[in-house]
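Dear Dr. K.,

Following up on our conversation at the group meeting, I've run the structure prediction for protein-glutamate methylesterase from mine drainage metagenome. I'm pasting the input sequence below exactly as I used it, so you can double-check it against your construct before we proceed with anything downstream. Let me know if the numbering doesn't match what you have in your notebook.
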Amino acid sequence: MMGEKIIVVGSSTGGTEALKIFLSGMPERCPAILISQHMPELFTKSFAERLDSLCAMQVKEAEHHEDIVAGRVYLAPGHSHLLLERVAGKYRTALSREPPVNRHRPSVEVLFHSAAKQLGANAIGVMLTGMGKDGATAMLEMKQAGAYNFAQDEASCVVFGMPREAIALGAVDEIVPLPRMAERVLARLALAR
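The predicted structure tokens came back this morning:
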């Protein structure tokens, strides 16, 4: 798994629909995707199941200490931050009940910070629609660590808060309309092979 790309996604308001559109465009054989979507605890499991039924990739609610494998999507549960760990040459998930960051748990900031630290240039960041600024600072850390980052464009966002903040910090390499996000990420992955 080391050296393989991993995609990390942050979303909030409008994110459930945006994730459906983005993930529907991703093929079954695709690098692993980790998602931090602001969502109450009671809804993340059923949301993951619904996405799983709509997408070629296998979508599940992330559990603590799962090996991260290609072709799978790991959605942060509503009660925990989602992070990555490196153990014996492999990546795995880690869940944390640490206090909310930017008023959120799961927080995009925590996931992206973890990606910057553990993955460096093997990360691809995607910031989708959302209110506030959660994840922007850590997305800049990702870019500085060598990651390539995408943000959803204003016209296709329900709320342009999170993408706008990341763009304003200079954390974003490409600004893309939601309907083309999967296509652009896949094009980037093809370049990186």
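Two things stood out to me. The helical segments are 15-24, 41-54, 108-118, 136-144, 161-168, 178-192. The two ends are 14 Å apart (CA to CA).

Best regards,
J.T.
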